[in-house]
Amino acid sequence: MKVAVTGASGLIGSALVSELENRGDQVLRIGRTARQEGDIVWDPMEGNLDPALIEAVDAVVNLAGETIEGRWTAKKKKKILESRVKGTQLLSQTFQRLDTPPKIFVSSSASGFYGDRGEEILTESSTAGNGFLADVCKAWEAAADTSSETRLAIARTGVVFDPSGGALQKLLIPIRLFFGGPLGGGKQWWPWITLADEVKALIHMIDTDIEGPVNLVSPQPLRNKELTKQIAKAFKRPAFIPAPTFALRALLGEMADGLLLSSSRILPEALEKSGFQFSSPDLQSALESLGLTKG
């Protein structure tokens, strides 16, 4: 299978490319610069992508987008939104110009689609939420319009856990230094998934006939307090020093509420109905698979 991947140099993208190549697929990396021979160069902000370079690929996986980490200034928020929407629109419009468009388009979104929903149990049939991240995700998903010949699957990814990067790497720092604890009140639900299961799910979306929105999250979401407690226990560390809500807001501004303090109790209903089997369905198995449990 020939698969084109945007955002191929990121945490998820690099792991996905490696797994696809290991199973024998031909991978075309799409990025702003060519890192190796055969890479495709595009400029999503300027709408530049040569259609001939992705003619007759079997699948396109769209993972490109400005990182959401950092204080959400007006400039940062503009980059977060436009990098996702413009890149996705460019791919969708390019497909329309191809004699042989891709059979499959797996386009990223995020669990932020649902917004801050407290205790409500959320599945792919739940409505969109409110707030900046929800608005970004709605626009992002709307941009993924394809021809009738291309199957579209939307990956609504939760917090991806891997010790080499992302949220887990940052959570581990204070825990290892003996001053970890819950964020804010700690009662907020966190939808999470290991990097290995994230990649496995993306490949599942390529290989099966699944379409529409798909929640890429563990079947066992955890409250932030419990999640932090389990991670600290694995390292034989305490987890009783909370990061106060006011301090998080002072340090991170709007990002604190939108990303760290919001509650999203999300279940992977579409994945499970399609027969997907999680390698790490619970946090204990996830920590073991990541080599983070201490004897």
What is the N-to-C succession of helices and strands? Answer: EHEEEHEEHEEHEEHEEHHHEHH
Number of strands: 13
Helix count from the secondary structure assignment = 10
* Major sheet: arrangement of strands: 3-2-1-4-5-7-11
Report, as a whole number of angstroms, the end-to-end distance: 42 Å
> Low-confidence parts lasting 5 or more residues at pLDDT below 50?
none
Supply Rg: 19 Å
Instruction: Describe the oligomeric state of these chains in a short phrase.
Output: single chain
The average pLDDT score comes to 91
The backbone outline, from C-alpha atoms, is globular
Q: Per CATH, what is the topology of the domain at 2-161 and 191-219 and 265-280?
A: Rossmann fold
Report the β-strand fraction as a percent range: 15-25%
Which properties best describe this structure?
alpha/beta, seven-stranded parallel sheet, two-stranded parallel ribbon, globular
Give a structural overview.
This protein has a domain at 2-161 and 191-219 and 265-280: Rossmann fold, CATH 3.40.50.720. The protein is globular and about 60 Å long. 37% of the residues lie in helices and 17% in strands. It contains ten helices and 13 strands. A seven-stranded parallel beta sheet has the order 3-2-1-4-5-7-11, sandwiched between helices. A two-stranded parallel ribbon has the order 6-13. It has helices spanning 11-22, 74-96, 132-142, 166-176, 195-207, 224-234, 245-252, 254-260, 269-273, 283-289, and strands at residues 2-6, 26-31, 40-41, 59-62, 104-110, 121-122, 151-157, 159-162, 189-190, 192-194, 212-216, 222-223, 265-266. β1 (2-6), α1 and β2 (26-31) form a beta-alpha-beta unit. The protein is α/β, with parallel strands linked by helices.
